[in-house]
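User: I've been trying to design a sequence by hand for this structure and keep getting stuck. Would you show me what you'd pick, starting by listing the structure so we're on the same page?

Assistant: Good idea, let's start from the same input. This is the structure you sent:
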């Protein structure tokens, strides 16, 4: 996939900050910088979303990657693996998210969260009352509404990346874990 809009030049301080955080500048930030106000707001809101702490970090990470795999956002999967490593999450599990239905490494709760993330990502959404109630009972109201808002934000980010032509940049190469292929989507999880 090729970028559908040219990258914009970032201010030097932002560019340096991104390189410190990620090792290189994320292309989605450079693309969004075509509208600096939008890009600033997106980075700020993304930081706030990342700071929410009512829901378990692993569950949110798996939900994010499940959405990315379903939508086909290779950049999001790539960054998700990188972030999972930085958050000291279970990398063996993270590597299996694109094939969570056939992998035996996930708990029932993790599977239900990834199923919920996919149901929220369907168009139209296919979340059922039973699915929501089951997660609400196990997570509690604060974590459930946070997880729901988090998945909604991830849908915004993944869909924008795919529409703008942003693809994997190889962030996950530092993870040293084998990346699972998305069943039925040839190479979509690849970071090459």
């Amino acid at each position: 996939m090729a970028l559908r809009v040219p990258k914009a030049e970032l201010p030097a301080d932002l560019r340096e900050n991104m390189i410190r955080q990620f090792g290189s500048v994320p292309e989605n930030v450079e693309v969004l910088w075509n509208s600096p106000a939008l890009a600033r707001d997106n980075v700020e809101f993304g930081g706030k979303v990342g700071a929410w702490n009512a829901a378990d970090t692993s569950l949110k990470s798996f939900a994010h990657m499940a959405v990315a795999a379903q939508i086909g956002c290779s950049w999001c999967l790539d960054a998700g693996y990188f972030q999972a490593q930085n958050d000291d999450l279970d990398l063996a599990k993270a590597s299996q998210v694109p094939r969570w239905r056939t992998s035996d490494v996930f708990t029932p709760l993790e599977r239900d969260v990834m199923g919920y993330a996919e149901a929220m990502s369907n168009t139209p959404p296919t979340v059922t009352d039973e699915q929501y109630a089951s997660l609400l009972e196990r997570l509690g109201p604060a974590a459930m509404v946070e997880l729901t808002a988090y998945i909604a934000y991830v849908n915004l980010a993944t869909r924008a990346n795919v529409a703008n032509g942003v693809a994997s940049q190889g962030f996950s190469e530092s993870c040293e874990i084998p990346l699972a292929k998305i069943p039925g989507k040839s190479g979509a999880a690849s970071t090459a």
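That's my pick for every position. To get oriented when you compare it with your attempt: The mean pLDDT is 91. The first helix runs from residue 12 to 22.
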